[in-house]
Design brief:
Order of helices and strands: HEEEEEHEEEEH
CATH class of the largest domain: Alpha Beta
Largest sheet: 9 strands, mixed
Number of helices: 3
Length: 199
C-alpha cells in the first residue's frame, strides 16, 4: 500500500470515529424522556362575591429561587427540597399563579377592572403577593400552598390590608399527575379566598 493510500484509509477511519463520538455525545444530551407538562386552573362557578368599580393591578408574585421555576417540588421529612422527576409546569410558578389569580378575579366579576402591570390602565389598587410554599409535603402526604397578599394603594403606596392564605390537600400519589392535581386543588382554594377577601 502506498503512503498516499495509507493516509486516505486512516483519514476515513478518523472521520468515522469522529462521527460516532459526536452521535454518542448528542444522544447523551437528551437527558432521558421529556417531562410531562402540567397546568394550573383558575377557579370559576363559585358565584359572584360582591361588586366594586375599583381598578386593580396584580403584580407578579415574589418567591424564593427554588419556587421561582417550572419544576414540581417535593419537601421531605427533614425539610430538604427536591424536584419531582418527569413533571414540570407550563410556566414558572409565579407567572402561572399571577395569570390564574387575574382570571379568578375575572371569573368572579369581583372588581371593575383587573390586569397585570403594563397593560395601559391606571389602577387605584395593587395586589402584591408572595409565594411562601408551593410543594408536596412528603411527610404528611399533602400538597401545601401558602401565599401572602397585600392590597396597596397605588397612589399612596400604603398597605391597606394584608393576610396569609394557606391550603393543604391530600395527595393520592407522589407522582406527576397526583402532585399536579393536588397542588392545583390547593391553589384553587387559596385563589378563591384571596378574591373573596380583596374587597
Amino acid at each position: 500500500m502506498t503512503t498516499e493510500a495509507f493516509q486516505t484509509v486512516m483519514a476515513r477511519r478518523s472521520l468515522r470515529a469522529l462521527v460516532l463520538s459526536a452521535g454518542l455525545a448528542l444522544a447523551g444530551c437528551g437527558g432521558g424522556p421529556t417531562p410531562t407538562t402540567f397546568d394550573l386552573t383558575a377557579p370559576s362557578g363559585f358565584g359572584r362575591v360582591g361588586g366594586s368599580h375599583a381598578t386593580m393591578v396584580v403584580a407578579r408574585p415574589t418567591a424564593v429561587q427554588t419556587l421561582d421555576s417550572d419544576r414540581v417540588i417535593v419537601k421531605d421529612s427533614s425539610g430538604a427540597l427536591s424536584f419531582l422527576g418527569g413533571a414540570q409546569w407550563a410556566d414558572q410558578v409565579p407567572a402561572l399563579v399571577q395569570t390564574r389569580l387575574i382570571q379568578t378575579f375575572e371569573n368572579a366579576s369581583r372588581i371593575g377592572s383587573v390586569s397585570a402591570p403594563g397593560q395601559g390602565i391606571t389602577p387605584s389598587l395593587q395586589l402584591v403577593t408572595d409565594i411562601r410554599s408551593f410543594n408536596i409535603d412528603a411527610a404528611s402526604g399533602t400538597a401545601v400552598v401558602e401565599i401572602t397578599a397585600k392590597i396597596v394603594g397605588d397612589a399612596s403606596g400604603r398597605i391597606q390590608r394584608a393576610k396569609l392564605f394557606s391550603a393543604r390537600v391530600p395527595v393520592a400519589a407522589v407522582d406527576g399527575p397526583g402532585a399536579a392535581q393536588a397542588l392545583d386543588r390547593a391553589l384553587s382554594q387559596v385563589l378563591i379566598d384571596i378574591v373573596r377577601w380583596a374587597r
